[in-house]
Every structure is written in structure tokens, then in C-alpha cells.
Design a protein that fits this description.
With about 200 residues, this protein is α/β, with parallel strands linked by helices. It has one domain: Vaccinia Virus protein VP39 (Rossmann fold, 3-Layer(aba) Sandwich). The chain is about 30% helix and about 30% strand. The protein has a 7-stranded mixed β-sheet with strand order 3-2-1-4-5-7-6. Helix 5 links the parallel strand 4 and strand 5. It is globular, with a radius of gyration of 16 Å.
């Protein structure tokens, strides 16, 4: 089992994760003209906190993650809430083929910094969007490695200019960054603040 599988059962118990998802959802609402007819994909959904915060704004939502443990918790949440327009999907785009389905919105929260090849993932996102579709990425600004601590093998957040250039290279337009949330987290150096950006872009 992965670390995410092991943490799935208690994931939603963290009030910071709940607060973060609500803040990101509100920022997405303010910057993207969401519609109840839209088909959406949340990639790296975990237990679906972000999509649950957006589910009344959207139509069908596919919630994709590579962790069976997270998806098991998500399935129980969807069943308990009676939300048939939300569908879990086991998917890891670093290994699995892309779906033939196309979406009006792809949204992610704290996922990109776990993906080694961000440029390829952005290309996958572009291919999965229909013309006129929107991309919304919420993740960490570049940090000094203290957020995860020793042993973490992903990205230490992102430089907005560098990520924006990667998004443009993947074909995206109207790219805009804003700060959507600031996490406070205890570290070896005491309590630290870590800003999260929301990157918005469109596919023409």
C-alpha cells in the first residue's frame, strides 16, 4: 500500500484540508464561468474534497486518482451523499492511457507537485479538454523543501513563470495565476506559511 492508501481513512479529519478545498473551490468559481451542464475531471482527487465543494456548480464529475485507498473512501462518501453524477476512476496518467472522454473542466488540488513529468501531464490535460475547456491547477508556490521534509522526491512547489511557460508550451491560452490560499504548517523550523497558487487557463 502507498502512503496515500494508508492515510485515506483519516484524510478528511484534517480541518486544514477541508478549509483549503473550500477556498480553492471559491477561487475557481470566481474565475471560471462554471455551468451545471459541464463535464469535469478532477485529477488526483484523493477523497474528493474539491469536487464535493464544486458538485452543485457542475454536471457529471469524474474523480480520478491512483490510490485505491482514497477511491474506496470516496466511493463511500458519494454513496452516503447520494450523488450519482460523481464517478470515481482509478487512473494514473503517468502509466495509463488517456480516456476518449473529453471535459469542459479539469481541476487539481495539490497534485502536480507529486508528478515527475509535469510537461507531459499538461499535454495530457490539454488533450482531455474539449475546445473551449478550462484548466484549474491549485498547488504550492516554490518552497525550500520544508513542506514535506526529508525523503520527498517530488517538486518543491513551482515557480509561477516556469509553470506558466510549460502551460503555454502545452497549448494553453489565457494563463493567469493568483494566490488562493495560505497554509500554515508546523515544521522543524517552527510554524511556516506556504502560499498556494491557482493557475487558470483555457484550450481554444
Amino acid at each position: 500500500m502507498t502512503d496515500f492508501d494508508l492515510r485515506a481513512a483519516t484524510w478528511d479529519a484534517d480541518p486544514i484540508k477541508q478549509e483549503r478545498a473550500l477556498a480553492v473551490a471559491q477561487a475557481i468559481r470566481q474565475q471560471i464561468p462554471l455551468a451545471s451542464t459541464w463535464r469535469a475531471l478532477e485529477y488526483g482527487c484523493g477523497t474528493g474534497l474539491l469536487s464535493f465543494a464544486l458538485h452543485t456548480d457542475l454536471g457529471d464529475i469524474t474523480l480520478a486518482d491512483a490510490s485505491p485507498g482514497m477511491l474506496a473512501v470516496l466511493e463511500d462518501k458519494i454513496a452516503a451523499a447520494g450523488l450519482p453524477h460523481m464517478r470515481p476512476l482509478l487512473l494514473d496518467l503517468t502509466h495509463d492511457s488517456r480516456s476518449a472522454e473529453r471535459y469542459d473542466l479539469i481541476h487539481t488540488l495539490m497534485t502536480l507537485h507529486h508528478v515527475a513529468d509535469t510537461e507531459r501531464l499538461l499535454q495530457d490535460f490539454y488533450a482531455l479538454l474539449r475546445p473551449g475547456g478550462w484548466l484549474a491547477i491549485a498547488d504550492l508556490d516554490q518552497e525550500d523543501s520544508s513542506f514535506h521534509g526529508p525523503g520527498f522526491t517530488g517538486h518543491y512547489g513551482f515557480d509561477r513563470a516556469v509553470l506558466g511557460a510549460q502551460m503555454e508550451s502545452a497549448g494553453f491560452n489565457d494563463i493567469a495565476f493568483s494566490t488562493c490560499y495560505v497554509m500554515r504548517k508546523p515544521t522543524d523550523q517552527g510554524m511556516r506559511e506556504y502560499p498556494l497558487f491557482l493557475a487558470i487557463a483555457t484550450r481554444l
